Amino acid sequence: MVYSISTALAIYFVLWWLVLFVTLPFGVRSQHEDGGGPPGTDPGAPVATQMGRKLIWTTVIAAVVYGIGMLAYRAGYLNIERLSKLMGLPF
Is the pLDDT of residue 1 over 70? Predict the structure, then answer.
């Protein structure tokens, strides 16, 4: 089975969002940890989120994971027969 370009982009898009939610908490300091913040704000609110850096890291990590997945798919490790056998489901 050959993936179309739209299927490949959809898989990468979903993978990118998953990786984004994994990378969001790294390197975030709260106002409470930093020792202050504007009055009336939540002490758990982040001081600097560094979203640009996180978006770059998310793109790089998602591309590497996607590349590994595509290599495994093309090598035959990720096919429906093998995965259903691994999960104990009849195919």
Answer: no
